[in-house]
Amino acid sequence: MMNRPxxxxxxxxxxxxxxxxxLLRQSLGVAHISTGDMLRERASSGxxxxxxxxxxxxxxxxxxxxxxxxxxxxxxxxxxxxxxxILDGFPRTVDQAxxxxxxxxxxxxxxxxxxxxxxxxVIIARLSGRRQCPxxxxxYGVSSNALKASELTASExxxxxxxxxxxxxxxxxxxxxxxxxxxxxxxxxxxEYLRNAGYTCxxxxxASRAPQVIAREIEQLVRQKYSKxxxxxxxxxx
Length: 238
Ligand code: AP5
Hints:
- The chain has about 240 residues and is an alpha/beta fold.
- It contains 9 helices and 7 strands, in the order E-H-E-H-H-H-E-H-E-H-E-E-H-E-H-H.
- The strands form 2 sheets. It has a 5-stranded parallel sheet, sandwiched between helices. A two-stranded antiparallel ribbon has the order 5-6.
- Strand 5 (about 130) and strand 6 (about 140) form a beta hairpin.
- The two termini are about 25 Å apart.
């Protein structure tokens, strides 16, 4: 049976997980699951749970495992995940990794873990310059080389659909520092857990190269790992 691709993009806040997921979902033709995007959408509902989620996320802490686990377990059952999926921002705790392990085992899915390595000083600079299109989700880096300066107009509008770009609530420097602390404390042990579980894990340098160059390297690792899916045409050709 073909092992459907499951790519776990692992790394600190601002390491480029979302940027890579957006590039790779197109070239690989798989679904993109971002727990951050799903939680932000839920938070924007304005009901009691939404307000509580917004409060947690704006403080830089992690949302409780039970909620995130339920959300992901449900999401990977959706039809668009049948051809494989990219996990962006999950798992982030050892409990989440345990749950994921069980879900993948039940489906005979072998994941590939990509650890994006980026220095924290680079991250703080990047996140203070991050802008996002509220309509299509495109990411921009006003003080980074993620986007050529010429592609971002002075009024900061999306090059694809003209929407005014926005700054995420949790990208203020003091919140970024809290998010990095949560990453150190709760998420770094997950990498060890994933390695010990026997999953293929690769470190990928994510600080000094253009997103497209990094995506090409990851794509090669994916195709290497899931070569059978590639040879049978089940993974979209780039
Ligand atoms: P989430 O939305 O997942 O945020 P994060 O993991 O903190 O990561 P970011 O989205 O900030 O960064 P990224 O790695 O995706 O980088 P990006 O591509 O945007 O989570 C937000 C919150 O939700 C959490 O704090 C938590 O409260 C909650 N949450 C989410 N998942 C959870 C879970 N599983 N459990 C519990 N709680 C959870 O890039 C960043 C910037 O850098 C951009 O401006 C981009 O243009 C630029 N850039 C990207 N690549 C490059 C490059 N190669 N060179 C230069 N610039 C680059």
